[in-house]
Structures are given as C-alpha cells and as structure tokens.
Amino acid sequence: MTQEELTHLLQPETPLELAFLEDERFRTGLVWGTPRYGHPEGAIWRHIIEVNANIDRMRLDVESRKKLRLVTWVHDTFKFCEDKSTPRDWSKHHGVYARNFLANYTDDALLLELVKLHDEAYYIWRLTHLYQNLSEADRRLNMLRQQMGDYWQLYYLFFKCDTCTGDKNPAPLDWFEENMDDIVIKDFS
After folding, report:
1. Full-prediction pTM beyond 0.85?
2. DSSP secondary structure string, 13-64?
3. Which of the chain's ends, N or C, has fewer CB atoms near its CB within 10 Å?
C-alpha cells in the first residue's frame, strides 16, 4: 500500500502524523496483520481507524485528543517485528519498538512510557484473574501508576479506546474501571 493510499485512509491531522507515514518501516507495520482474535480487522491501519473513532466519540480537550492519537498511531504498528519466542524477551515487545520510534519525534517522557506500557493493564488483569497472582499484579499495578504519573488518566483513556475495538474481551476494562478509584470514568458520547 502506498504512502498516498495510507494518507487517504488514515486522514492525518497533524504534521507529525503525516511525518510518520513518510517512514517506510512504519508503513510496513501499518499493513501488517491478518484477522485474529482481538483484531478481526486484520491490518494495523484498520485498528488505528477504530481507535481514532473511539477517541472522536469522547469529549476531550484538544491536547489530550492529540496525545491519544499519537499513541494510537504508533502503539501496535511495530507488532510485525515483535519477538514472541519463549521465554519472552520483553525488550523486543512491540510497545518498546513503538516507544523507540516515537522518541525520534518527541521528548515527552510520560507519553513515551504510555506507548511502551500500553498493554500493561491487560497483563495485570491476566495476572489477577487468570493466574491469581495477586502479589505480582499489585506490584506491577503500583509500578504502572508510578510510571504513568500525571498521565494516569490519559493511560486509562487510551486503554478504553483501544479495548473497545474489534472483538476484544471487555473484562479487563471493566476491572480497570471498577478498581481504579483514582481515574475519572469517561463514556463515549
């Protein structure tokens, strides 16, 4: 798929979003993917459209919306180069690759951490509900809160917009909204 086709499909709103599309490796990631559980849409660019639509359904201030779109554009785009061998090398997780890519464009440390850790709430939910490893889940949740700092609410907003796509299990989001008393629950308008 060409840069022009992806530009037409994704409708970049900022010069930064447009700049992402100039990167050949980024474009490779956008077209990667086949329909699978959690992502029946297949290609990453289709997932970005879904998450962006959820962002548009929230009433957000301009700066939060802009940051959420940046996270959306990069968060899964590097799944094509993720190493999923066992045992996992978490330094080769797609969130790490996405964070490193975005670091070429911003020095916002919290936004970079959000990108890197965008799946962490899901992993914590799994530790809690599937593996009953509550001490490890608590440790990781406390660490996530610390790492997100002032972006904790933004982290939640992205988690919601991302989880409410495709055929993803809503249970992790339900758990997050029911148990995090330090977030403001946002609904889609």
Report:
1. yes
2. -SHHHHHHTT-HHHHHHHH----BTTBTT-SHHHHHHHHHHHHHHS---HHH
3. C
